[in-house]
């Protein structure tokens, strides 16, 4: 086979042989994928030589930015010394040991033990087994229902997809038993007319209490939630929401699971989102930013009170070939060393976070934007034909996709969820790059507005 060289040749091969995740392959193949060939800092380069500002940190993961030789070197060194060994059958290795200890140091004080996985989805499958095992050992096997939220994303395996609240996913693969979905704290989309964010936050949190009462506390094992829903559209809850959830979890005999796959490792201006919101989870789920995406790795931290029970339960019949993969752990250690040395968490909290937030929040003045919230370095723009009435565009998702496509043309990667644009740039983005990002977002909004005028969808 001759090696493909041109973009057109590469696209043809991709279309012939590659099935992409979450994609309509018929229309994608007709259009052709963008081929990314290299990256440095916050900048991607595609096969046509375009330089693109990566406003999504890859897929919410490249927290320390691209091109970090230190991580590359650590992985290469580890591959030379011990490319693989498992952590089953009474064995372990240095990278897994060192990373476990590092995570115990970085996570809130109740966490001292980690179970390694290869991804966020595998982590959440692990969570389901862990919480059910916990209550089996406590001789309460009937406590097995896990409460989650509509429009939550917890991964894409059958079990993690069931835990998530994405209706289009449930439509293609039935939800596994004993998962229950309650309301999400999405003020813009779901508050009643006249309701304040404070009132809405309390009402939505109390849906958890109501669900526990309706099913019976003796049947509920856990509540799982993302501190800020990421893939659901960057839903930042009203200030009243998390304290009320924390109260309910304290009062009831259930485990609280914080899915920190996106919010973990600095995204919200703390090491973990639960610290930003002051909640005290029993289980903490990690992936993505743990290695900044340089290698696939996930993990589940269990609080001491949970670990102590599991400790008494004999074998936990669960594990993956790549649980604690040495090269992935080496990548994580190098990544976390960079984060600590460069104080990236402090930078998000006190420097670049506030800098970008001020400019992002000001986008709410654009005629197309209903709200422009941002926390740490994760933000959203709700597109609407009518700010005051919180009205939606017809054919939900069409305007979001239109804007997302303009953004791509303007060499800025943003995601669209329904008609909400979302952004989560690498934590190393400079002030100058923030200005560039905002300029490209403004151009994207103007391009979208002009097109919608042509359609007669806005005045
Ligand atoms: N939990 C959360 C909160 C996530 O955001 C997962 C679990 C699953 O992780 P893995 O590593 O199995 O993918 C995620 C992943 C998107 C998008 O389009 C978001 C994710 C993955 C793919 C696409 O926003 N989040």
UniProtKB/TrEMBL annotation:
Zinc-finger found in the keyword field: no
User: Recorded GO terms, molecular function?
Assistant: transaminase activity
Statement: the UniProt record of this protein carries the keyword Kinase: no
What enzyme category does the UniProt record give?
A: transferase
Which cofactors are reported in the record for this sequence?
pyridoxal 5'-phosphate
Going by the UniProt record, its keywords in alphabetical order are: Aminotransferase, Pyridoxal phosphate, Transferase
Could you tell me the EC number(s) of this protein? 2.6.1.-
| Family matches, as InterPro entries | Aminotrans_3, Aminotrans_3_PPA_site, PyrdxlP-dep_Trfase, PyrdxlP-dep_Trfase_major, PyrdxlP-dep_Trfase_small
The entry sums up its family as follows: Belongs to the class-III pyridoxal-phosphate-dependent aminotransferase family.
**Protein name stated in the entry:** Putrescine aminotransferase
Source organism: Ancylobacter polymorphus
């Amino acid at each position: 086979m001759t090696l493909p060289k041109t973009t057109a040749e590469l696209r043809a091969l991709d279309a012939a042989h590659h099935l992409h995740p979450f994609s309509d392959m018929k229309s994608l193949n007709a259009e052709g994928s963008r081929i990314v060939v290299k990256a440095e800092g916050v900048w991607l380069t595609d096969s046509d030589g375009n330089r693109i500002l990566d406003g999504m940190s890859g897929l919410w993961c490249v927290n320390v930015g691209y091109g970090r030789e230190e991580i590359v070197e650590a992985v290469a060194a580890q591959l030379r010394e011990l490319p693989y060994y498992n952590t089953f059958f009474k064995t372990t290795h240095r990278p897994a040991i060192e990373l476990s200890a590092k995570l115990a140091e970085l996570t809130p004080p109740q966490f001292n033990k980690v179970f390694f996985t290869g991804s966020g989805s595998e982590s959440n499958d692990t969570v389901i087994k862990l919480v059910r095992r916990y209550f089996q050992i406590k001789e309460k096997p009937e406590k097995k229902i896990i409460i989650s939220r509509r429009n939550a994303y917890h991964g894409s395996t059958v079990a993690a997809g069931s835990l998530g609240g994405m209706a289009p996913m449930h439509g293609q693969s039935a939800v596994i038993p004993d998962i229950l979905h309650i309301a999400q704290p999405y003020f813009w989309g779901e508050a009643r007319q006249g309701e304040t964010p404070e009132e809405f936050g309390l009402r939505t949190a109390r849906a958890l209490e109501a669900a526990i009462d309706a099913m019976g506390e003796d049947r509920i094992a856990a509540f799982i939630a993302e501190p800020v829903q990421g893939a659901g559209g960057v839903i930042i809850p009203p200030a009243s929401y998390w304290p009320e959830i924390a109260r309910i979890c304290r009062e009831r005999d259930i485990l609280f699971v914080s899915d920190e796959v996106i919010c973990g490792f600095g995204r919200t201006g703390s090491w973990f989102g639960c610290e930003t919101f002051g909640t005290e989870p029993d289980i903490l789920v990690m992936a993505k930013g743990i290695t900044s995406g340089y290698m696939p790795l996930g993990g589940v931290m269990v609080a001491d009170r949970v670990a102590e029970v599991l400790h008494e339960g004999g074998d936990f019949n669960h594990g993956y070939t790549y649980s604690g993969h040495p090269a992935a752990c080496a990548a994580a250690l190098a990544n976390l060393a960079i984060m600590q040395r460069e104080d990236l968490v402090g930078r998000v909290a006190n420097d670049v976070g506030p800098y970008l937030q001020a400019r992002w929040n000001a986008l709410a003045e654009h005629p197309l934007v209903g709200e422009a919230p941002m926390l740490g370095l994760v933000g959203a723009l709700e597109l609407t034909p009518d700010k005051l009435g919180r009205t939606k565009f017809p054919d939900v998702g069409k305007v979001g996709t239109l804007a997302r496509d303009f953004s791509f043309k303007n060499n800025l990667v943003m995601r669209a969820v329904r008609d909400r644009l979302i952004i989560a740039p690498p934590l190393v983005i400079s002030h100058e790059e923030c200005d560039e990002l905002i300029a490209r977002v403004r151009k994207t909004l103007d391009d979208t507005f002009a097109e919608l005028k042509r359609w007669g969808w806005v005045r």
